Amino acid sequence: MAKLSLAALVPLRSDIAHKVSELDQEREKNAFCVYVKGEQAEEPTRSFALITEELEEAREDFRVIDELIHSANLAHKITWNNQEISLFTAMQIAKHMRKEAASLKRYGSMKKEELNTGGYFNGGDKTITRAMYDIEKARESGLKLERKVKRLSQLIEDECHNIFLEFPQAEKYIELED
Question: pLDDT band at 126, cuts 50/70/90?
Fold first, then answer.
């Protein structure tokens, strides 16, 4: 029985999704043939029925691995800010933290004041855009949040390497060691 870490299952899920896409394209290509009337049609090397069967199997494998990964992400916990949270919650927090860190760093790169030359919306008048926040504080907050999210991501990654799940279908897609 193939037991893989959660960290190994995530890229395997992507591989299976890619396989589904390849089979879907192959079936589309082999579904029809164009030939001149009176001449022999060139038969594809793999039949529509065989490709459809493989496609259905790959789609089922994708559903199984997807559910396995989602269940593990909900069932397993890490400690963050003195709280036990699921891997799923931790991943959501990390995603939001990354977005906020990027926003704060962008705000931190702005000028305190900027002169705007006349434009259509202000009747051609020159205007000044002034930042209504502390630019340096925003930059520092963004950098601090970036370091914090790196720590959270490392905790998630470490936990994913410690969780092992059975996925017998893995042998269809990757070579497993004995």
Answer: confident
Among 31, 7, 139, 153, smallest CA distance to 80 is for 153
Number of domains in the chain: 2
| Domain shared by 153 and 169, yes or no | no
Give the model confidence (pLDDT) of 159-172 as tens digits.
999 999 999 999 99
Is 175 found in the same domain as 158? no
Same domain, 86 and 158: yes
**Model confidence band, residue 39 (pLDDT cutoffs 50, 70, 90):** very high
* C-alpha to C-alpha distance for 3 and 9, rounded to whole angstroms: 10
pTM of the model: 0.83
Q: Cα–Cα distance between 20 and 85 in angstroms, integer? A: 33
Mark out the alpha helices in 37-134 (DSSP H runs): 48-75, 87-108
Give the domain extent around 14. Answer: 1-36+43-76+163-178
